[in-house]
């Protein structure tokens, strides 16, 4: 048994490039019209009713344009129980006119299609279901979830392939006819190669602690070396016993220079060397203003450890006594660093908060090359010009040409209007989010290194 949807789909599939070629529309008075919207009858030409193929000699099929098809207005209704029927509930199904209108409007976008359908007073297909319905009508897909099958349509499971599958399943479930699983030889070889070359074997804690060690036992009197191996039993005490002679020999070598007599001038020479080394270190100059967010109490925690401590709290922890010079130590690659890799310091930096302290860091010899102000690489300011009265460069414009200016403020406070005319780097500290401090410090060192690369390449930190 066939119905209107089957005939319509056969006509639309006959000419994919021009799907409406075999359709003709008649008005209620019998005259032919150009648009399906104005029609009352649908005439399908050149479609054989038995084979549903294109046949020029086939008689015309006349159907009412408002006849409901078996395609639901929304496919969600297909899951209802009992399922709707075009005869008992035609209002739940799309008419032939609505389907032909959707095919004619297939090139329009969703919004334009909905507007055109409303203007033509045609039921519109939902936007998400419209592509699937049109593809089904044009034969680009064989099924659609929102179609109610014919009453005498045989279920899909009754096909020969499905019947054979049911027989196979019933045979497999029969206890008497179970067959042994025979794996494919190619699959076996593939799995074997996969396990041998690419599989990672996970170890438990006990297996991970156990291991095989090879220890080189060097004799001080012999040039030859012999390897001593420990079996994978996790015997760490045995490993320590074998390493003990080598550790004691290393300790004796380290203590040997200290036992030798040293001249009385050694402390003075070491002190002079330390002074000469200190005379080459870069200098960061802080503001000694009481309102400064970075002072001598919290600068080391910020620039070295990447953690901002409020100045009042840092002063209280230090009991009100600050160091005259704060040293920011160099970090090596094997130590934990709060500064990201690539921004780690490669030199020691000295931090002071007054012009007198900068002058004391000089080497004591005369000459422009020994001027400690030439080693000042950054100046922290609070935006108050009185801070620079005792500096070598009293004008902020000259000062920030010879040292990078840094202005630190709370992120929720407006900046000092005076710093807008100064060449300074703005650092905004969050009042509560301490996890952002490391990012702020990394930004500072990166900006300082870039400034040194342009202005003082011989003082670069990394």
TrEMBL record:
<keyword id="KW-0804">Transcription</keyword>
<dbReference type="GO" id="GO:0000993">
    <property type="term" value="F:RNA polymerase II complex binding"/>
</dbReference>
<feature type="region of interest" description="Disordered">
    <location>
        <begin position="251"/>
        <end position="277"/>
    </location>
</feature>
<feature type="compositionally biased region" description="Low complexity">
    <location>
        <begin position="256"/>
        <end position="274"/>
    </location>
</feature>
<feature type="domain" description="Cell division control protein 73 C-terminal">
    <location>
        <begin position="279"/>
        <end position="451"/>
    </location>
</feature>
<dbReference type="InterPro" id="IPR038103">
    <property type="entry name" value="CDC73_C_sf"/>
</dbReference>
<protein>
    <submittedName>
        <fullName>Accessory factor associated with RNA polymerase II</fullName>
    </submittedName>
</protein>
<dbReference type="GO" id="GO:0016593">
    <property type="term" value="C:Cdc73/Paf1 complex"/>
</dbReference>
<comment type="similarity">
    <text>Belongs to the CDC73 family.</text>
</comment>
<dbReference type="InterPro" id="IPR031336">
    <property type="entry name" value="CDC73_C"/>
</dbReference>
<dbReference type="GO" id="GO:0032968">
    <property type="term" value="P:positive regulation of transcription elongation by RNA polymerase II"/>
</dbReference>
<dbReference type="InterPro" id="IPR007852">
    <property type="entry name" value="Cdc73/Parafibromin"/>
</dbReference>
<feature type="region of interest" description="Disordered">
    <location>
        <begin position="153"/>
        <end position="178"/>
    </location>
</feature>
<dbReference type="GO" id="GO:0006368">
    <property type="term" value="P:transcription elongation by RNA polymerase II"/>
</dbReference>
<keyword id="KW-0539">Nucleus</keyword>
<dbReference type="Pfam" id="PF05179">
    <property type="entry name" value="CDC73_C"/>
</dbReference>
């Amino acid at each position: 048994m066939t119905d209107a949807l089957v005939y319509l789909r056969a006509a639309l599939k006959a000419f994919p490039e021009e799907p409406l070629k075999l359709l003709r529309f008649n008005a209620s008075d019998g005259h032919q019209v150009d648009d399906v919207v104005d029609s009352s009858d649908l005439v399908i030409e050149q479609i054989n009713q038995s084979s549903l193929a294109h046949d020029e000699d086939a008689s015309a099929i006349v159907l009412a344009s408002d006849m409901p098809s078996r395609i639901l207005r929304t496919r969600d209704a297909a899951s209802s129980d009992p399922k709707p029927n075009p005869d008992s509930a035609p209002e739940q199904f799309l008419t032939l006119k609505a389907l032909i209108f959707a095919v004619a409007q297939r090139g329009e976008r969703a919004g334009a299609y909905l507007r055109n359908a409303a203007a033509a007073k045609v039921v519109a297909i939902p936007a998400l279901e419209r592509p699937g319905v049109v593809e089904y009508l044009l034969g680009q897909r064989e099924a659609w979830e929102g179609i109610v099958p014919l009453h005498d349509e045989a279920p899909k499971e009754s096909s020969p392939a499905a019947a054979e599958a049911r027989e196979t399943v019933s045979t497999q479930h029969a206890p008497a006819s179970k067959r042994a699983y025979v794996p494919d030889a190619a699959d076996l070889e593939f799995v074997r190669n996969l396990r041998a070359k690419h599989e990672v074997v996970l170890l438990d804690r006990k297996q991970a602690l156990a291991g095989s060690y090879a220890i080189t036992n060097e004799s001080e009197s012999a040039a030859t070396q012999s390897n001593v191996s420990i079996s994978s039993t996790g015997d760490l005490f045995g490993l320590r016993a074998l390493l003990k002679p080598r550790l004691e020999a290393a300790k004796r070598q380290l203590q040997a220079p200290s036992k030798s007599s040293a001249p009385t001038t050694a402390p003075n020479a070491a002190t002079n060397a330390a002074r000469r080394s200190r005379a080459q270190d870069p200098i960061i100059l802080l503001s000694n203003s009481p309102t400064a967010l970075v002072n001598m109490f919290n600068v080391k925690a910020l620039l070295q450890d990447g953690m901002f401590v409020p100045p009042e709290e840092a002063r209280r922890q230090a009991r009100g006594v600050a160091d005259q010079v704060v040293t920011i130590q160099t970090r090596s690659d094997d130590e934990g660093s709060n500064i990201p890799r690539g921004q780690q310091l490669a030199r020691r930096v000295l931090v002071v908060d007054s012009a007198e302290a900068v002058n004391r860091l000089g080497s004591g010899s005369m000459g422009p090359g020994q001027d400690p102000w030439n080693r000042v690489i950054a100046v922290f300011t609070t935006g108050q010009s009185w801070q620079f009265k005792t500096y070598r460069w009293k004008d902020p414009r000259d000062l920030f040409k010879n040292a990078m200016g840094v202005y630190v403020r709370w992120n929720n406070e407006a900046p000092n209007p005076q710093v807008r005319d100064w060449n300074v780097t703005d650092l905004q500290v969050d009042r509560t989010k301490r996890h952002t401090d490391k990012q702020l410090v990394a930004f500072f060192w990166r900006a300082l290194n870039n400034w040194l690369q342009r202005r003082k390449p011989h003082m670069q930190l990394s």
